[in-house]
Amino acid sequence: MSGKIDIDKIAQLARLKLTDAESDRLGGHLEQIIDYIDQLNQLDTSSVEPTSHVLPIHNVFREDKAVKFADDDVDYLAGSPANNQGHYEVPKII
Amino acid sequence: MHSKTILQAKEDLRQKKYSAVELTEAVYQRIDSVEPKVQAFVHLTRDIALKQAQTADQKLAAGEDAPLLGIPIALKDLICTQGTRTTCSSQILDQFVAPYDATVAGQLKSAGAVIVGKTNMDEFAMGSSTENAWHHPTMNPWNLERVPGGSSGGSAAAVSAHECLAALGSDTGGSIRQPANFCGVTGLKPTYGRVSRFGLVAFASSLDQIGPMTKTVADSALLMNVIGGKDPRDSTSADVARPDFMKALERDVSGLRMGIPKEYFTSGIDPEVERSVQEGIKTLESLGMKKVEVSLPHLQYAVATYYIIACAEASTNLSRYDGVKYGHRSQKTDNLLEMYMNTREEGFGEEVKRRIMLGTFVLSSGYYDAYYLKGQKVRTLIKQDFENAFEHCDVIVAPNAPVTAFKQKERIDDPLKMYLSDIYTISANLAGIPGISIPAGISRTDGMPVGLQLMSKHFDEESLIAVGHRFQQNTDHHLQQPSL
Predict the structure, then answer these.
(1) β-strands A87-88, A83-84 pairing
(2) Contact B336 A41 (CB under 8 A)
(3) Which of B40, B112, B141, B190 is deepest in the core (most CB within 10 A)?
(4) Are B124 and B78 in contact (CB under 8 A)?
(5) What is the pLDDT of residue A60?
(6) Cis peptide bond N-terminal to B196, omega within 30
(7) Mean pLDDT of B239-258
């Protein structure tokens, strides 16, 4: 199973800029873990339904009405690294 | 004073043997004395706690009552608390202050609790030893060279070392039960959906559940009365009536059927762990419980299934840490994409990156069916194993971990070996059922605590509380103390 994982591609999808050393180490670990996970192939699951949620809950609705969430003086942007006049600030996109 | 249980302290406060302020001060004196060795907390909230204790004293003087009035409790540092830091033991959230309380934090405060501080954990609850923590590791109070377990290792160590009367933890694959086991305390993972997850920093949303970590089962029952129940702010919280869990303490357990799953007693289990568990089973038999053998044939696949599902969910949940809305932002920010990638590279520790990578892989195009969908299907088989077993028994009795607390640094470089230390706890999360770990003895080999695990059907925490409490009434394992 070795070599199955394209570490650079996965890191890009995961938005992680790994150092070369990290990439090597994590790559080795992931190969080892995926080899272990591959034991699931011993099981025939062709007629088994997947479980995404353990309880029989489906859509949960509430009335479409605005409700007060917390104190009015809470500044929700206070924790952001950069904000300006009620907006998040980010570096240039294009 | 600091070594009291919640129920003892409640009675003492009512009888005015001491005040809530005196109790809180005694707890902080204990923290000042042992915390340099144990390092159970990320940060303390001393000033706020003393104010909460003063308020509790005023209410007590006025004859008011509330379930936790004046009781010092610690919270795992992934439960949001308005106005104080919630770090998840991660660099990326190190300065994060939540703008609101998690539902459970609000419930504890409304019940009169004094919040002592926020306890250490593996970063984003990813780990089994509280070594993957950005600030510092936590030590096991029974032996400072050993790990407290994880990921709620700070909560377990704080309860064990009497740095609080009780704590809340969270359990995604065993993160309440395994550290409770390693530190010799009681840890209850409720049914998925029993306790609101609103304000719990998400790791794996289909598995995460908050629960109590206490000195006795009776204290866990009391905490469940405070935190259990439907929350409109968490759409996955179950619309199931919350019973009075304290009533379960009075239940007779004779005639209850305990299922012993043979797969939990195979090679790989430490002989001293097996001895304590078998003695625990004998104790339960002496209380009139009937032993039946049950089978959970897919146990061996639980760890593999768990790491697919938990990591897939984690990779999605942790995509929110992008340096925009909160937390750390890299200074290397030429453009938006670079900012995202550098922020996450700098802010996450290695285990978190490993799980994000694994989760991203199993969800990626071409591998989704082979891994993620396969994992969800095997999850169904594991869930069915429990449904079949519970046709023959009321409670499953099993070991909680194959070994006692291992040494610091022993497993940190071998992720797969670390993952396998959760083999006995993970399947309860995959099936969504409740489980509890209660102290069941001390290993004669290494002097470390051994836990007994009880599991029951969805929403039947009462059976765990009834059996666990009766066990503690007839044994003194939970009274054993580390000599710090």
Answers:
(1) antiparallel
(2) no
(3) B40
(4) yes
(5) 85
(6) no
(7) 97
Where do the domains of chain A lie? Answer: 1-42
Give the number of other Cβ atoms within 10 Å of residue B254's Cβ: 10
The answer to whether domain A1-42 has CATH 1.10.472.20 is no
**Residue B333 CB: number of other CB atoms within 10 A?**
19
Q: What count of residues does chain B have?
A: 484
B382 to chain A: nearest residue by CA? A51
Give the separation between CA A18 and CA A24, rounded to whole angstroms.
Answer: 9
pLDDT at A67: 83
Q: Supply the pLDDT for residue A1.
A: 42
B206 catalytic, yes or no?
A: no
- Cβ of B365: how many Cβ atoms within 10 Å? 6
What is the domain partition of chain B in residue ranges? 6-258+392-479
Q: What is the mean pLDDT of residues B462-481?
A: 98
Q: What does the pLDDT look like over B180-213, one tens digit per residue? A: 999 999 999 999 999 999 999 999 999 999 999 9
Four-point Cα dihedral A50, A53, A56, A60, nearest 10: -130
CB contact under 8 A, B379 and A15: no
Sheet holding B435-442, edge to edge: B41-44, B114-119, B72-76, B166-170, B210-214, B186-189, B435-442, B449-455, B395-399, B257-261, B290-294
Please say if the pLDDT value at position B421 is more than 90.
Answer: no
Kindly report the CATH number that applies to the domain delimited by B6-258+392-479.
3.90.1300.10
Specify the pLDDT at position A93: 83
User: Are the CB atoms for B165 and B75 separated by under 8 Å?
Assistant: no
The ipTM assigned to this model is 0.94
Instruction: Using an 8 Å CB-CB cutoff, list chain A residues near B378.
Output: 40, 43, 45, 48
Contact: A81, B307; criterion CB under 8 Å = no
Q: How many CB pairs under 8 A join A and B?
A: 167
